[in-house]
What we know:
Layout: H1 3-6, E1 11-22, H2 25-30, H3 34-54, E2 58-63, E3 66-72, H4 76-96, E4 103-117, E5 124-128, H5 130-138, E6 145-147, H6 149-152, H7 157-160, E7 163-166, E8 171-174
Parallel strand pairs: 4-6
Antiparallel strand pairs: 1-3, 1-4, 2-3, 4-5, 6-8, 7-8
Helix pairs in contact: 3-4
Amino acid sequence: MSYWTDLRLPAECDLVVGTYDLTAYTIYCEHTEPLRALDVVTRYTALAARIIHDAGGWLIKPIGDAGLFVFRAENADDAVAAMQTLQAEGDSWLAAEDYKGHMRAGLHCGPVAVGRIGRYGDEQLDIIGKTVNVATRALRPECTLALTPAVFRKLSAASRKLFKKHTPPVSYISLNDRRPR
């Protein structure tokens, strides 16, 4: 069993919450048959879920070309490593599928409510709270991976060296990214 399957619901807990999405998705869909786009996004989501789950996280849900995922707060390094792996493997995979964009992600850490939501009898695991909204806003168009200070503070010294501070608002972006304007 795992933390995720053993969790008693509903619950409130501190989690690293992340969102990822694919750049150039609108353009891709304009030039791609719908069933082909669905096939590519379905297989990409399976890749993302495998990488996130293998690192100890949980893909809460895909949202079209995007996804919402969580890691335990004490596993912030694993969340960052999973996103770096998804960028490396996923971007190569997308290129092989003739997809011209790339994956970008934003991470925040804080309290969320975890529970089951949906049509009665068919509820799905979901997370609710301000932390989710902040994680979504952490996505930056010009950055491949952006962290809020709350996540950065949870990282080991080695993981912190992979990021540089960007203000305002404060976020930490990959060393490989140009500073946003």
